[in-house]
Amino acid sequence: MPSSTFFYILFSLLLNLLISPFSYATYLNSPLILSSTAYLPKLQAEKLIRELNLFPKDSINTASIDDSSVLPSKIVEKQLKFPQLSEVGPSVKEFGHHAGYYKLPHSKDARMFYFFFESGISEDDPVVIWLTGGPGCSSELALFYENGPFHFAKNLSLEWNDYGWDKVSNLLFVDQPIGTGFSYTSDDKDIRHNEEGVSNDLYDFLQAFFAQHPQFAKNDFYITGESYAGHYIPAFASRVHQGNKAKEGIHINLKGFAIGNGLTNPEIQYKAYTDYALDMRLIKKSDHDNINKMIPVCEQTIKACGSDGGDSCVSSYVVCTDIFNKIMEIAGDVNYYDIRTKCEASLCYDFSDMETFLNQKSVRDALGVGNIEFVSCSSTVYDAMLMDWMRDLEVGIPALLEDGIRVLIYAGEYDLICNWLGNSRWVHAMEWSGQKEFGAAPTVPFVVDGEEAGQMKSHGPLSFLKVHDAGHMVPMDQPKAALQMLRSWMQGKLALSETEGRVAYM
């Protein structure tokens, strides 16, 4: 079914639901909804991947290979030096760049791949892990285009990134969930469908990583990421905190987590789409009011997903996604990751260098991945996480705040798909002991090099930051501000100064 026809029929169905006695249960079981669940997620995932100019050979990394060197029973890690990396800048040996695999113990045959870049300043700097969203997109997207030690130059060569987060931390990038990037399995049972499976895998990975690198286990530990990682990160933080309390394995010195332009509380965030689109003049007031008629059904399906799970979550994805798609039908070729720009011929970004680079034999040899093909974004992983999509992951955050875990929610102001307005609303609505004080806290400038780079409010362990002149990928659009944000936050300085009435900066 062509997507325009599908959405027209679905929109009509929703309007009929709102003005007729047509029951909610009938709606969920309608042939349109039931037939669409098999095709819509895959279509959405493939569209997402094409818009990034990525064309993975496979829809998921389920490699089964004979090379025993990449079928380890424990971490296999090697010192990393890309042959394409310019020698201008710090030496790789000085930094300590590594890549490796870890066989996940609670899986049939899963191997998780990661990059590890030691801090260029001090071994005692915090350990920071980065998780890219999708769901199903490799964290190498961030490594090469956002906050990793290097970026692409001409002819697939690499140049040093002056604002890489390895300047202030020991930095981990992990390909997850399994099947993403270079992480793979030979057994479909290892494909994860919810945050329990994802967070358990990440926790197992950390246990093995710190066992291999005990000198870093004492360091402060922070979880960071963006987009669908707004789901991964709270679940992962809760799993680490739970493991620490239960004295499982190695104690992980979790201090905080940061979510950039994330999807965390869908019920609140999907309702914010029309308001943000109207504020940014992507739609007119009449469009806003018409599309808002779809919101009550979206809310109902999200609630059903939270209580019932299963098909209710699929129906919720279909219904609520159409709110966003209806806005995009009106907005046209606007880049929904950064509404200041337009997508040309369905191309919103060009990340193809990453795909080409990582599939070169010389690079695969340097990484020790053998003949495994790099899967930049996995449509199968995206589809597998469909039952998880409309879950509210904000619910676990208050307990972490109460135990002193620092939380930073930040968002580039020009992103539509995980916009700052929806993120601000769920942060303000979150019930915890400091909710009232957080709501009453003043909004103050976030200052970088003497100039305002964003607007922030904070109380206790919770901070919210809207970053100026940035879209969905803040470290790519505002690398200096993103590095300053991370540094100040980890040092406990990203907070209101009572004497100056402004955000502290260095």
What does this structure look like?
With 506 residues, this protein is α/β, with parallel strands linked by helices. It has a domain at 3-36 and 266-345. It is built from 21 helices and 13 strands. It has helices spanning 3-19, 24-28, 31-36, 40-51, 92-95, 140-147, 195-212, 229-245, 266-271, 273-279, 285-292, 295-308, 311-331, 352-358, 361-367, 379-384, 397-402, 420-429, 435-440, 474-477, 479-490; strands at 76-79, 97-103, 111-117, 127-131, 150-152, 158-160, 170-174, 221-227, 254-262, 406-412, 444-448, 451-459, 462-467. It has an eleven-stranded mixed sheet with strand order 1-2-3-7-4-8-9-10-13-12-11, with helices on both faces. It has a two-stranded antiparallel ribbon with strand order 5-6. It is globular and about 55 Å long.
Main beta-sheet strand count, sense and barrel state: 11 strands, mixed
Give the N-terminus to C-terminus distance in angstroms.
55 Å
Helix content: 25-40%
The class by helix and strand makeup works out as alpha/beta
Rg, Cα atoms, Å: 22 Å
In total, the number of strands is 13
Provide a quick synopsis of the model.
The protein is α/β, with parallel strands linked by helices and 506 residues long. Helix content is 40%, strand content 15%.
Task: Summarize the helices and strands and which ones pair or pack.
Layout: H1 3-19, H2 24-28, H3 31-36, H4 40-51, E1 76-79, H5 92-95, E2 97-103, E3 111-117, E4 127-131, H6 140-147, E5 150-152, E6 158-160, E7 170-174, H7 195-212, E8 221-227, H8 229-245, E9 254-262, H9 266-271, H10 273-279, H11 285-292, H12 295-308, H13 311-331, H14 352-358, H15 361-367, H16 379-384, H17 397-402, E10 406-412, H18 420-429, H19 435-440, E11 444-448, E12 451-459, E13 462-467, H20 474-477, H21 479-490
Parallel strand pairs: 4-7, 4-8, 8-9, 9-10, 10-13
Antiparallel strand pairs: 1-2, 2-3, 3-7, 5-6, 11-12, 12-13
Helix pairs in contact: 1-13, 7-8, 10-11, 12-13
